[in-house]
Amino acid sequence: MILTITPNPSLDRTYDIPALQRGTVLRAGTDRVDPGGKGVNVSRAVAAAGLPTTAVLPLGGPEGALLADLLTGLGVHVAGVPVTGSTRVNVSIAEPDGTLTKLNAAGPHLSAKETETLLETARVHAARATWTVCCGSLPRGLNAHWYAELVARTHRAGARIALDTSGPALLAALREAPDVIKPNAEELAEAVGHPLTTVGDAVKAAGELRARGARAVLASLGATGQLLVDERGTCFGSARVTAVRSDVGAGDASLAGFLTAGGTGPAALAAALAHGAAAVALPGSLMPTPDDLRPEAVTVTTDVPLDRPLDGATR
């Protein structure tokens, strides 16, 4: 069972329009509402693969109730923590050429009691999980050390934990030795404080984060590929993608693939690449099923192309 914790989940409402024009009245052709949040997406991907998953998340107001109903309908077991504020609603404006404009709400302010209840709910469920996954931004009321405390409690429960966040929250959590962290190239550069221009730079940066506590680093390098650096060494992989329809949730699908394949070694990296490639070929934030995967399009090697330029500059 894969347990996910999403401290700032959302309802994601998407409107399709002919063109975005500021200061005018626009009429949407179609609209849809999907469960949102990085941890929520991981649970959706695990459920789409036909595997058990539980999502721990704060739920408030009618928006929270709808989010729980949507997840249950997708086969996700919901362990909701009631909160006073309403679950946030994010709005996306989609244009025919693929341009997506997003408006992300801040989310509710969690009280000290709600924060503690969220931590304890996660700890209790972690004892029965193969992997615990904590993802995304922190809502108001949670400080940058909240993820560090979550990692510590998960380890005390005897569980492994993967962390997908960035900035001060990531740096603070490193001292508790998360089993896997999943930065993208930009987040990796931010964490080490210097730009990355090649795969070799990313390997060195991953090594720096391992020296600071992370047991393994699964780094997404955009179109360049993915990198796994752990105690067994370094491996690199890429996947052929014929057409990109949407990259929303692709990184979360990739993390789900990695963990459901064991969360360690080249085979797990290959599964991560297959899931991520399948996700970008699907519309919106749909998560891939086993029928969508193309493992033959994935290449994984321990002969890491250190001189290969990264796709896009990083700070």
UniProtKB/TrEMBL annotation:
<dbReference type="Pfam" id="PF00294">
    <property type="entry name" value="PfkB"/>
</dbReference>
<dbReference type="InterPro" id="IPR022463">
    <property type="entry name" value="1-PFruKinase"/>
</dbReference>
<protein>
    <submittedName>
        <fullName>1-phosphofructokinase</fullName>
    </submittedName>
</protein>
<dbReference type="InterPro" id="IPR029056">
    <property type="entry name" value="Ribokinase-like"/>
</dbReference>
<keyword id="KW-0418">Kinase</keyword>
<keyword id="KW-0067">ATP-binding</keyword>
<feature type="domain" description="Carbohydrate kinase PfkB">
    <location>
        <begin position="10"/>
        <end position="285"/>
    </location>
</feature>
<comment type="similarity">
    <text>Belongs to the carbohydrate kinase PfkB family.</text>
</comment>
<dbReference type="InterPro" id="IPR011611">
    <property type="entry name" value="PfkB_dom"/>
</dbReference>
<dbReference type="InterPro" id="IPR017583">
    <property type="entry name" value="Tagatose/fructose_Pkinase"/>
</dbReference>
<keyword id="KW-0808">Transferase</keyword>
<keyword id="KW-0547">Nucleotide-binding</keyword>
